[in-house]
Write a structure and sequence with these properties.
Number of strands: 9
Radius of gyration: 19 Å
Structural class: alpha+beta
Number of domains: 2
Order of helices and strands: HHHEHEEHEHEHHEEEE
Bound molecules: iron/sulfur cluster
Shape: globular
Length: 281
């Protein structure tokens, strides 16, 4: 519920920065409306957007974490069902053929759960678990793309595909967007990495300098497209381009793009063995 009602500070700062730099008068009006939307949601403890999305969780599991992940997964699912009922959230989860609604925002393979094992760090102690919640609205999730490039396509092919995705998406993902990119790996890993990229705070960069430079180049290029806030024209089409990469096969170079709307919702919870929970974004 925190994720749905309060945007992370980095997202709010990026939207304020976009408002200050926007060259199009209509774009400025739309960014003002987004700021008002955020303020009203915080003031009234209400939803930032009516589409509470498909719930995606990314779990960073410390290498010495003793928690039972099957029970954690069951608890996450129970929490989503409880939130849906107690807060009257729109039930979004349906069967893909019959369209029968589960009414809980959970179901077969929902919520989407990703697990990653991490070595201990100042941010995540080795015996801790960090859960990242990503409510993913359908307007932006429908703007997801995968292309199995080959090495001969080169980095130019990677750049072209990412920018073509932003153009094809146009107004549909409610820009300005966060562009999550997965690069390398296999088709499934690449797509998951694109989702992980969306979770990164705005202003962060890849720890690989080659990839970080590509993020900056694509950020500047995407904002030259003129799509603008809500696709009505302007100089702010994207708030950031984040790339998560993996090594890949000698004959492959898959690229996945996952767009996140201006309502870039996310929240986190760090659970330590003493039972303490630290909430964040
Ligand atoms: S894409 Fe985002 S802002 Fe647009 S309707 Fe969906 S959740 Fe809301």
């Amino acid at each position: 519920m925190r994720a749905l009602k309060e945007l992370p500070p980095d997202v709010k700062a990026a939207l304020r920065g976009a408002r200050d730099s926007e060259t199009d008068p209509t774009g400025r009006v739309l960014l003002d409306i987004m700021a008002e939307n955020i303020a009203v949601a915080e003031r009234d403890t209400n939803l930032v957007c009516q589409d509470t999305g498909t719930v995606v969780f990314w779990l960073e599991v410390g290498e010495d974490c003793a928690l039972n992940l099957a029970k954690v997964t069951a608890a996450v699912s129970a929490g989503i069902a409880r939130a849906t009922l107690e807060h009257s959230l729109r039930p979004n989860a349906v069967h893909p053929v019959t369209r029968q609604n589960t009414h809980t925002n959970t179901g077969r393979h929902l919520p989407v759960m990703h697990y990653e094992f991490v070595t201990g760090s100042a941010e995540i102690p080795g015996d801790a678990l960090k859960l990242h919640c990503l409510p993913k609205g359908s307007g932006s999730e429908n703007m997801s793309f995968l292309k199995m490039l080959i090495p001969a396509d080169g980095v130019q092919g990677v750049k072209r595909f990412i920018l073509e995705c932003v153009v094809e998406a146009g107004p549909k993902p409610c820009p300005p967007t966060v562009v999550g990119v997965g690069l390398g790996g296999t088709s499934d890993l690449c797509t998951a990495l694109a989702k992980k990229a969306v979770l990164r705070p705005l202003g962060s960069h890849s720890d690989d300098p080659v990839i970080a430079a590509l993020e900056d180049e694509l950020f500047a290029a995407a904002n030259e497209l003129g799509i603008g806030p809500m696709g009505l024209g302007g100089s702010n089409t994207v708030l950031g381009v984040h790339i998560e990469h993996a090594d890949t096969h000698i004959t492959q170079n898959p690229v996945a793009v996952n767009l996140q709307c201006w309502a870039a919702r996310r929240s986190s919870a760090l659970v330590t063995p003493d039972g303490h929970v630290t909430y964040g974004f």
